[in-house]
Amino acid sequence: MERRFVVVGAGVFGSWTAYILRRLGHEVLLLDQYGPANSRASSGGETRIIRAGYGPKQVYTNLAVRALPLWVSFFEKIGRPLLYRTGVLWLDGDDSPYVQGSDDALRSAGVDHELLSQEEIERRYPQMRLESHVAGLFEPQAGAILARQAVHALVDDFVNLGGVYHHAEIMQPAGNGHLAAVRTASGEQIHGDAFVFACGPWLGKVFPDLLGSKVIPSRQEVIFFGIPPGDKRFSTPQLPIWIDCSGPRKVYGLPDLDGRGFKVACDVHGEPFDPDNGERIVSQKGVSRAREYVTRRFPALADAPIVETRVCQYENTDNVDFLIDRHTDFENLWLVGGGSGHGFKHGPAIGEYAAARVTGSATPAIEERFSIASKQEFDPRILRSSL
Hints:
The protein has 387 residues and is of the alpha/beta class. The protein has a domain of 194 residues: FAD/NAD(P)-binding domain, CATH 3.50.50.60. Helices cover 28% and strands 24% of the residues. The strands form 4 sheets. Strands 6-7-5-14-15-16-13-17 form an 8-stranded mixed β-sheet, with helices on both faces. It has a 6-stranded mixed β-sheet with strand order 9-2-1-12-19-18, with helices on one face. It has a 3-stranded antiparallel β-sheet with strand order 3-8-4. The mean pLDDT is 95.
């Protein structure tokens, strides 16, 4: 039976949820206050990593394994190559429980990968300088998605399939029980049979009493270094994406893709951040840390110019698990978010999961770790202390 669904938030979670609901034959209205994958959104950057290694967290490995072919199928459908299979190299200590956990989970899921010694890493990638006792795990089929372009393409195809997109700000729903309509900032009433709020870092703002202390946006800084002219060592396929947990901070980076530069970011929670009004200018401290790291790990780029910078945000839950659950006060309002910096890659699988919950489908099975009840309140000052 066809139903009318209203999805608030045109980032990767909301757009895939709307897309899949439309593919199931339902009437779907997708809304966003700033536009799909806008510059304030967590889905608005140029690139996002897609990988299946998650240590012992088999559920996220399985989600990534499900998501990758859905991304590939969508890109083939629209005829746009928005996935770079650069491979992803995880670096950690040679006795790392995370690498061992990823090895076990990837084997269980049938994902092609290999464990690499420090000697093998240095042989393959001589542009990297490693400390002693570093080992790696390499996923050759992993890579990077051109994130902003992918979400724009998804929304365009959603509309081509008969879905409707509107640009509007939605206010916090009032009351409880069955929600008949949501209200825009201009006063318009939008009716639906069920509602999905997938508004990323705005979840805590829209639902302050329920989520204001459970989904906390944090400021994240990204630095792009220019590679030397004619030097192919820092582009794909000579260098994969890398995630480095071998030092005091977790740092990740991407080789030069589409001429944007060599991307470097510190994967720790930054300071609490307002997605509406936060200034998106990187700090000198962030620039210095990125350059210090690049100088140590990629010495040929020690004096490379900075060609681009970005400030984005994670929307963190206390345990970095996603939030996909029914609102505690409304029988037909669902919350989807808590990407916590690693959600983009899972977009299609999350869309399937959310659509199954909203429509009452028996599959995929319910994950308790995605429930509101599993999320604890946490002090935003903890985010500051992680820097």
